[in-house]
Structure formats: C-alpha cells, structure tokens
Design a protein that fits this description.
alpha/beta; Rossmann fold; 6-stranded parallel β-sheet; 4 helices; binds adenosine-5'-diphosphate; binds zinc ion
C-alpha cells in the first residue's frame, strides 16, 4: 500500500442550468482550499467583453478564478505543486479540452469540472460526452422544472418568452434570451 502517492482524478459535475453545478463546484473547492491544498480555478471568458475574476453560483456564492478563452492557457498557471484544478462552464472552452485535462489528471492532479451536459437543443454539449466517459466520478444534478415542479434535466432557451428555434446558434451573445430549467414534458424547441 502506498497511501500518499498523488493519483490523478477527474470529477465531472453536470446537469441543466440552475441545477447547482457551480454551487457544488464551489463547495468542493472551498474544502480543498480550507485543507491547504494548492487549488486553482478557471472560468471561460465567453464573450471577451470583460474578464471574470470569480466563479459565481445563481444564489450568489463566489470563489476567485482566472478567466481564460482556450483550455491550453491553463498550462501557463498550473504549477508542479498545484494539486486541485477547478473549471466552471467547461463546455464553453475551445481547444483540446480532453487531452489537456487528461494530461493534468495523468500527472497526478485532481481536476473538478462543472458543465452543461446538454445544450438548449437537448443534444450533448461539445466535448462533454468524452469527459463524462473518462471521468472517475460523475455527479449529474437536476433542477426543478419551472413549469410543473418535476425534477428538471433540460435547459429551456426562450427568445422574447417563446421557445427558441432549433437552428439558433449554440452561444448567443447580447440577445434578449432567457433560460429556464424544465422537465422532459415541459421542454420545448421550435423545429
Ligand atoms: P448551475 O451552475 O447549475 O447553473 P447554480 O449553482 O449557479 O446552478 O445555481 C443553483 C441555484 O439556482 C439554486 O441553489 C437555486 O438557488 C437557484 N435556482 C433558480 N432557479 C432554479 C430552479 N428552477 N431549480 C433549482 N434551483 C434554482
Ligand atoms: Zn415540467
């Protein structure tokens, strides 16, 4: 037995919007920070308008984070003594997400990622399926359906209050869109 060798680990936290992914990520990382484990947190700089310097849950919990556009930028910040790496909204990052993350895991780091498993079309989001397959641990959260109160696995995009179109782009910036958590019965897409 060798209890104290750094065995890397990938933890994925997924689910629809409002399911508490950021809350859960923040909860896990606050514990590693309190335990004195060198922890670095990243968040995608989605629209490049301003650099976010924290990750934030919908109910206002926050942790300091580094804003990046491409996954490769992580490698500039992670040092040999870094043991825990957190990434929020991982589905939005460009680049070789899977190979960069697995490189860190294989070098003994604990990587904890939160991200949407499905996009607004209810299809799997980008490289999330591969990350979920490679993960050592997957937590799939549900929200509460805003229409009926059932457990919600879907992210409903609304444009001016109406269900979005299937042909809309995946990432809308500055549009008058809003999102709700919905169950399979209440989720709608305009085809
Ligand atoms: P995510 O990262 O998955 O989008 P957050 O961690 O940012 O979720 O926010 C979760 C919080 O959102 C909940 O604790 C609750 O306060 C709030 N919330 C708002 N709408 C809903 C909903 N429909 N179902 C569950 N929680 C909701
Ligand atoms: Zn419902």
């Amino acid at each position: 037995y060798s209890h104290f060798v750094d065995v890397g680990r990938l933890e994925m936290i997924c689910g629809p919007m409002f399911s508490g992914k950021s809350e859960e990520l923040i909860r896990r990382l606050k514990r590693t920070i309190l335990a004195g484990m060198p922890t670095i947190i990243f968040t995608p700089n989605i629209d490049n308008r301003y650099a976010e310097d924290h990750i934030c849950s919908h109910d206002g919990k926050k942790l300091e984070a580094i804003s990046i556009s491409h996954i490769e930028e992580i490698l500039d910040y992670v040092k040999d003594d870094t043991t825990v790496i957190g990434i929020d909204e991982v589905q939005f990052l460009d680049g070789e997400i899977v190979s960069v993350i697995m490189k860190l895991v294989n070098s003994g780091k604990r990587v904890v990622c939160a991200g949407l498993d499905k996009d607004f079309k209810a299809e799997s989001f980008g490289q999330m399926p591969e990350l979920l397959a490679l993960a050592d641990d997957v937590t799939k959260l549900t929200a509460i359906c805003m229409c009926c109160g059932r457990p919600a696995n879907f992210t409903q995009r609304l444009i001016a209050g109406k269900p979005a179109s299937y042909n809309d782009p995946l990432i809308l910036i500055g549009a008058s869109e809003s999102y709700e958590a919905r169950c399979r019965l209440c989720y709608q897409i305009d085809r």
